[in-house]
Amino acid sequence: LFGLTIRDLRSLAFELAEQNQIRHSFNQEKQMAGKYWYYGFIRRHQELSLRSPEATSLARAKGFNKFAVGRFFDLLESIYKEFNIQPSDIYNVDETRILTVANKPSKHCHQPPLLQAQH
């Protein structure tokens, strides 16, 4: 999951309530749960946090071009074949996402990664 904006989360709550025929007092016109529902949800689920994604560095943005991306996927394909890796064997190992816009992004709600004990 790449994280949801607060509006996305509120809209998703409305959609889930509607699809599952759960009685609610969410805004029918805006088709989203209210701000107080959101505050309560975050209070009940403290494992979630709210953060603003950081802007992409200039070096990272320069490296994100057609040639570099094509080369990456060519190498990835050769590794898949060499080690017989199936797509279902792949897990998310990067907790960030690529931003393609330079303006300040909205805040996202997500579950922080678990800290691993160091040996």
UniProtKB/TrEMBL annotation:
Name of this chain's protein: HTH CENPB-type domain-containing protein
Domain of life: Eukaryota
Organism: Homalodisca liturata
